[in-house]
Every structure is written in C-alpha cells, then in structure tokens.
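A reminder from the course coordinator: this example appears on the midterm review sheet, so study it carefully.

Given structure:
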C-alpha cells in the first residue's frame, strides 16, 4: 500500500469515527485547496442535526490528485487491505497515538452523543 501519509491519516480518522459507533453514511471527506500544490483534508461528521469538522492533514498535490488517491485508498481499505494492514494504518495514526478522548470531548461539547464510546478508549 503506497499512499501519502495524509491519505492514511484520513483513512484512520474515518475509522476512528466508525469505532466510536458512527455510521459511514454520516462521515465524509472534503478536500480544500490551500495553495497550488496543497490540499487540506477535512473529515466531516454530520449527525443529530450537527455538522462537525476535523482538519485531518494536508495532502501534497492538487485536488484532482487527492481525489484519485482517496478513491484508490478507500477501495483498498474496503476491499483489498488485510485486517493486519488496516490495523497498522490505524495504530500509526495521529488519532490513535494521541488518543481519541480529546476528540470525544469536543464532540460531546458540541452536543453530539457518541454511540459506542461508553467509557472505553479506542485502543
């Protein structure tokens, strides 16, 4: 699997939200060009009438390159990657290393109920 670290971080952020019990139907990625060759990756969670935005990372490339890599990465994540490979991406992510408790606190502060986070960590 050869993807930019920013793409791996986006995959892991989406997985972290899934581990919290949110449906993948409520999670989406939105790139935003910040300069000619850089794209900010935003992960959005839209639940309970609230939209929550996470700035995941910055992709080195144009928006079209990001979209191409994101589609390939999503296909790999859902159809090709082994459980071990997916776990490696998750465990090497910023969200995993820093713990998701801070994110959970931000979600709760915004009034978002976390379906599967009943006192457990995401490790």
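Designed residues:
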């Amino acid at each position: 699997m050869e993807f930019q670290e920013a793409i791996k971080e986006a995959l892991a952020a989406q997985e972290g939200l899934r581990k919290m019990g949110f449906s993948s139907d409520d999670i989406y990625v939105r790139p935003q060009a910040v300069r000619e060759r850089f794209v900010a990756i935003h992960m959005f969670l839209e639940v309970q009438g609230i939209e929550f935005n996470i700035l995941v990372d910055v992709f080195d490339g144009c928006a079209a390159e990001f979209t191409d890599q994101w589609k390939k990465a999503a296909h790999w994540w859902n159809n090709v990657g082994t459980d071990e490979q997916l776990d490696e991406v998750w465990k090497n992510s910023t969200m995993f290393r820093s713990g998701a408790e801070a994110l959970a606190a931000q979600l709760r502060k915004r009034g978002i109920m976390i379906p599967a986070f009943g006192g457990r960590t995401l490790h």
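Strands lie at 27-35, 38-47, 50-60. Confidence is low (pLDDT under 50) at residues 119-123.
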